[in-house]
Amino acid sequence: MGPVLDERAWFDRPAELVAADLLGCWLIHDAADGRVAGRIVETEAYQGPEDLAAHSAHGRTQRNAVMFGEAGHLYVYLVYGIHLCANVVCGPGTKPEAVLLRAAEVTEGLELARRRRGAGVEDRRLAAGPGNLGAAFGIDRSLNGADLLAGPVRLAEGQRPGDVVRTARIGVGYAGEWAGRPLRFVIADDPARSRR
């Protein structure tokens, strides 16, 4: 695990660039019940108000207000009424872009991640998919707006992956022409990626 990403400027860039650069980085959550850390293997970029799949496409609301704030914060939202999804707020500047963290390989805090996910989940599947990632890392609504430079959730540099695949994002068929854009980034053939 490399140094913690503690420069606001690193996050204050277009989501497409940040999404690619997050692959291989480390996600770390130092919660009251322990630490879970893992290597990010899958992300999706959401490019602001013009992107019909982005939460910022319909303007600022109470739910998405964090996206309209300073880059380098965590945006946490509930999907399907059950899954909490973790996003990294990006820029540039005041442009409300974000990166969805879709999957990670848990390497530290495996027992804690297993307790959070339930019995019978393979280690490599603990954080495969955005809802599973949120659960395994203990990311809840109390962390919405958390500063990634201050913790308790942090990001750290990792080894850049060699083989990255870009595809269309998942579950955004409603977004018209934006649905097919290659804004999902995946470390090719990584066993911890989501199933899709």
Name the structural class.
alpha+beta
Beta-strand content:
25-35%
Helix coverage percent: 10-25%
Order of helices and strands: HHEEEEEHEHEEE
Give unreliable regions as ranges: none
Termini Cα gap: 27 Å
Largest sheet: 9 strands, antiparallel
Cα shape: globular
Residue-averaged pLDDT, rounded? Answer: 92
What would you say this structure looks like, in words?
The protein is about 15% helix and about 30% strand. The chain is of the alpha+beta class and about 200 residues long. Strands 1, 2, 3, 4, 5, 6, 7, 8 and 9 form a 9-stranded antiparallel β-sheet that branches. The longest helix is centred in the N-terminal third of the chain and has 8 residues, at about 15-20. The chain is globular and about 40 Å long. The model has no long low-confidence stretch (mean pLDDT about 90).
Task: Summarize the model shown.
With 196 residues, the protein is of the alpha+beta class. The protein contains four helices and nine strands, in the order ααβββββαβαβββ. The two termini are 27 Å apart.
